[in-house]
């Protein structure tokens, strides 16, 4: 009886909370690295006999933002956590990208974020918008993710006022080549050829990994790293005759322009200009992000 009591207590005190913790992490922390790490410690032997299904392709979304924007970051984190796993086919890793931290507060708070979420990349630069942060981002990635095997098939640069719909994003890239790709929303007024815009606008554009490597070695890109970031990325590729496979997502990526359901069509890949909490809230509501909230006696919303 005594022994039984102990083992029951042991289950209650140690094993149950551990299992719960594992379950919570697996559910709530979709970051793939984290998930994999935890899987290895949480997974039951029976489960681990299943073969790991490798995604068909991998996308990195780097959100260039500022260390002090803690609240915005948390909204974005939650919004993307609730979209994972995007599909069976494509893996999406979202990372927040900073230049050097500058204050003691940042060094503690960001360190905690990294330890909790592992979704931060800190580049060797001083915070700036059009003085080369985008160049440093792309040029650093081959060093951030060293190794012969390419870590991602596509790398997207985005900002903290853009919301991506993962399923549509994955679907838009799945059937595309994995090399020499320049993808995004073309800047329209500057071109008459919709198939060949001079550049993709800054809300979120993607290039294939070979072009990331090319940028990191291109002397022309290094010499011309400071300027309006989206125009300059287009310039590097145009001058270097790179990114011949261009995919303009057009009206599937748009600026926030209204609060009606018709303003958020199902084929949407990204909504931009989400500068205010209000516009984030409208967008997330329109995409039914919180519909799955379970009812409970613990809260009412
Ligand atoms: C970081 O950037 C500074 C200034 O551009 C440079 O002097 C330094 O060598 C860089 N450090 C590393 C580790 O790349
Ligand atoms: C960024 O911080 C690193 C490490 O503290 C330092 O070596 C580097 O020079 C800094 N870079 C810039 C551009 O300030
Ligand atoms: C880059 O700048 C250096 C120094 O100004 C110059 O010598 C070189 O020719 C430039 N390279 C390209 C490709 O523009
Ligand atoms: C959100 O849910 C409503 C009601 O269930 C539905 O009519 C609408 O199509 C959904 N919107 C999206 C973008 O899935």
UniProtKB/TrEMBL annotation:
The keyword Transmembrane helix applies. Its cofactor is Mn(2+). It is found in: Golgi apparatus membrane. Its main location: Golgi. GO terms for cellular component: Golgi membrane. Coiled coil: none annotated. Its EC number is 2.4.1.-. It is a single-pass type II membrane protein. It is an enzyme of class 2 (transferase). This is Hexosyltransferase. Belongs to the glycosyltransferase 31 family. It comes from Rhynchospora breviuscula. The keyword Transmembrane applies. One of its GO terms (molecular function) is hexosyltransferase activity. Pathway: Protein modification; protein glycosylation. The chain crosses the membrane at residues 9-29. Keywords: Glycosyltransferase, Golgi apparatus, Manganese, Membrane, Signal-anchor, Transferase, Transmembrane, Transmembrane helix.
